[in-house]
Design a protein that fits this description.
Subcellular location: Endomembrane system
Strand content: 25-35%
Family: Belongs to the small GTPase superfamily. Rab family.
CATH class: Alpha Beta
InterPro entries: P-loop_NTPase, Rab33A/B, Small_GTP-bd, Small_GTPase
Number of domains: 1
Order of helices and strands: EEHEEHEHHEEEHEHEEH
Keywords: GTP-binding, Lipoprotein, Membrane, Nucleotide-binding, Prenylation
Protein name: Ras-related protein Rab-33B
Largest sheet: 9 strands, mixed
Shape: globular
Distance between the termini: 14 Å
Structural class: alpha/beta
CATH superfamily: P-loop containing nucleotide triphosphate hydrolases
Helix content: 25-40%
Bound molecules: guanosine-5'-triphosphate
CATH architecture: 3-Layer(aba) Sandwich
Number of helices: 7
Length: 226
């Protein structure tokens, strides 16, 4: 599990931007809103139109975390089996965090979460990868209710707890002008993964960071039993 350093070629005295790069993979059933969530974070707005993702789409954003510029590389993966099967191993290679998405208005997308975790577990090959759970499309349901069109809030909380995952409800479609909840979720995840202070760092030009084995408390909070 390596976070690579990016070096752009330098000429003369031009300073060389160096970023730690963090790969975040977004998974979940087709249609839950993975593209819209990643686009919202990348472009700051809901996309006008989306089509089913084929394989994977990449979106990158440079963030300033406590004075350090880092690059977040989002892998928006296909939810449809036929568009992902040949690529699955690539998704999980050197991943730093996983965002597992379901649609709060679609109970089937919640019921399928164990299958996604099974895929993580199978492909992460023993690595413990930080994982968060995101229930999207809150704009479609009455949020004051404990039942979201069939997905019970209590069930979701228990599922997240059982797998040691932080859990967020949001909407990629939340009208602009309101507080950017989607942005806050991504920023908080970026902050947490960059705070893994015990990364080991090889200082060669294209060196890498290695995720450490975390202490028990940290593991309980972040590992998704992948
Ligand atoms: N109301 C509402 N609709 C949303 C939201 N997020 C996504 N959608 C809609 O849901 C549909 C599917 O969204 P996508 O982002 O393409 O879903 P996906 O998970 O990337 O789908 P695949 O690429 O097939 O895996 C689109 O019609 C979006 O406009 C949301 O927060 N609220």
């Amino acid at each position: 599990m390596d976070a690579s350093l990016e070096l752009s070629t330098s000429t003369g005295n031009t300073s060389v931007p160096r970023y730690r790069i963090f790969k975040i993979v977004v998974i979940g059933d087709s249609g839950v809103g993975k593209t819209c969530l990643t686009y919202r974070f990348y472009a700051g707005r809901f996309p006008n139109k989306t089509e089913a993702t084929i394989g994977v789409d990449f979106r990158e954003r440079i963030l300033d975390i406590e004075g350090e510029k880092i690059k977040i590389q989002l892998w928006d993966t296909a939810g449809q089996e036929r568009f992902r099967k040949s690529m699955v191993q690539q998704y999980y290679r050197n991943v730093h965090a996983i965002i597992l998405v379901f649609d709060v208005s679609n109970p089937a997308s919640f019921r399928n979460l164990p299958l996604w975790l099974e895929e993580c577990r199978w492909n992460a090959q023993g690595q413990e990868v930080p994982c968060i759970l995101v229930g999207n499309k809150c704009d479609l349901v009455h949020q004051g209710s404990s039942v979201w069109a069939g997905v019970k809030g209590e069930q979701v909380r228990k599922f997240a707890e059982a797998h040691g995952m932080p859990f967020y409800l949001t909407s990629a479609k939340e009208p602009e002008g309101q507080r950017d909840h989607v942005g806050a979720i991504f920023m908080s995840l970026a902050y947490r993964i960059t705070r893994q202070r015990t990364f080991s760092y090889r200082s060669e030009a294209l060196g890498s960071f290695k995720l450490p084995s975390r202490n028990r408390k940290e593991k309980e909070k972040w590992a998704c039993n992948c």
